[in-house]
Prior knowledge:
single chain; alpha/beta; Aspartate Aminotransferase, domain 2; seven-stranded mixed beta sheet; 18 helices; 12 strands; globular; binds pyridoxal-5'-phosphate
Amino acid sequence: MITATEQNNMTRPILNGDTSDLSPLQPSVFDQSRPGALGVSLPAVGVIEQPLETLLQGVRLRGDVPRLPEMAQLDVVRHFVKLSKLNHSIDGGFYPLGSCTMKYNPKVCDFYGMLPGLTQLHPLTPDVDSQGSLRVIYTLQEMLKDVTGFDAVTLQPAAGAQGELVGIMMIKAHFKKTGQLTQRRQIIVPDSAHGTNPASAAMCGFDIVEIKSAPNGLVDLDALKAVLGPSTAGIMLTNPSTLGLFEKDILEISRLVHDAGGLLYYDGANLNAIVGVARPADMGFDVMHINTHKTFATPHGGGGPGCGPVCVTAQLAPYLPSPNAAFDGTRYFWDSNLPDSIGRVKTFNGNFEMMARALTYLLAYGADGLKQVATDAVLNANYIRSQLQDTYEIPYNRICMHEFVMNSHKQHAMHDGLNTLNIAKRLMDYGIHPMTVYFPLVAHEAMMIEPTETECKDTLDHFIAVMKRIDDECRTTPDVVINAPHTMPIKKVDEVTAARKPALNFYCCTV
Ligand SMILES: Cc1ncc(COP(=O)(O)O)c(C=O)c1O
């Protein structure tokens, strides 16, 4: 049961599925256009009353006068503010998206990332005139070496997935250089891996060998031993895994892979769980990517611009993308003297502003702060897990890292129509972004929850209360959950059709 206070704190729950009080879709600026409405005061007195067509006489370069919406300035402001509010954002509400780590990005990172001296520098400025920016890049490389334990870093890749591709390209370059590529064709990937892992390896021409997880959700050592051999090029591992579980046998895993002549790739998506506490290089990994948006407070790669640094051991350093920021004790410079490099992977050496943001984050937190980040992230996830374990089934229910996975089996048993998707959609009616669903694939009807360290206990308690309330609804009013969301401008869509055949509406200015 939830308390009255908890109930009051919940956002506009609609219990009976009544949608009559909901606002309709926001009309476009063209639908709101009223002839003669003006959004600006034009400087030339006397022409204000004239139609747009007259005003633009002689100004337009080609064709007919575009059909521009005519609106008052305040209405334009309200229109776009309304639209912006339709998007759920971490600055607007809780966002427990497992594995995608939506944590608060401190505004100080934006402030320093957008300093005019950094943003207005032309990317082709000679080294001698860009010492400050080169220092930012070089310092970040050095700090990431400290954090991960690796010997060298590239900041060129624009996202985690590109970092994976770059890392596997370096593994490939290494085996080519050492004459083993024709033999070492296989990359091992556990069945809990993110889809980008096998995709990156396949794009580099490797064969993917999937191994099933052990019943405890971890890498099955026997399954691993069975596939290791002279064809092994390497293994791609996420640690903690996408189930939020730490591979306790990681040292044994790295010994086995190295003994077979393979290399270990660390998918750094879950670095937030161990940052400042443990280092992937110390676990025996040879190469890793970092999703700076998940750990060091930059925007996400997909919505970007992003940054997916790749860190390597000295053995793989010769293959790093070129050029790389370097320092000779006196001056910073772009080092292009990398004869074995896999080459440039991003125009203008990456998204510089993201590097400035990530460096700001690292400097602001410091070593102790980072350790606190990881421990709080783990604490928050375990708090929610412990509070929900009697309400939802948690398949690997033990101390987790920064995230955990539960499922909707208990709720499905109450009503056939109830599933993970419905529960996730219902969360939106309470102003909370759905958790990650149906991933990892190894967990049936998965709901993957990652609160991150940036949320306070009140927010976690609110989320827990909402999840318990949805469970109550599953029991008492299942149709409300099945038909959710009720408060969104777009109701439940057929997800596959929506993704494959999106109905995109736009207005062309000339029609
Ligand atoms: C485990 C894992 N690996 C790799 C990626 C890919 O990272 P990015 O989205 O930065 O390309 C993700 C993305 O969420 C992920 O969760």
